[in-house]
Write a structure and sequence with these properties.
This is F0F1-ATPase subunit Ca2+/Mg2+ transporter. By secondary structure, this protein is an all-alpha fold. It has 3 helices and no strands. The longest helix is centred in the middle third of the chain and has 30 residues. The chain is elongated.
Length: about 90
Amino acid sequence: MALISANPLGSSCVVAVRVQLDMADKHPPDHKPQPDGSDMGWRALGYLISGIVFWGGIGYLVDLWLDLPRVGLLVGMLVGAAAGMFLLIKQMSP
């Protein structure tokens, strides 16, 4: 037995028309919302703190490895602050 379709174009045409009608109702937004100043401030704070914590941690591990009196921690924190500022300036510049 064969299925006989009432639609001469087949059922795939009906599905395509339904998809097009569903997509026609959805309009893309005109523009994306612009980030305000607080978003950029939190991002800057995150870059600085994460750089200091990460590189300070690596400096602390170097201190433990070489048995230094917290010199690596200080150097690591300074390098982390500089790296965070570099990434921040690189991202904010056009």
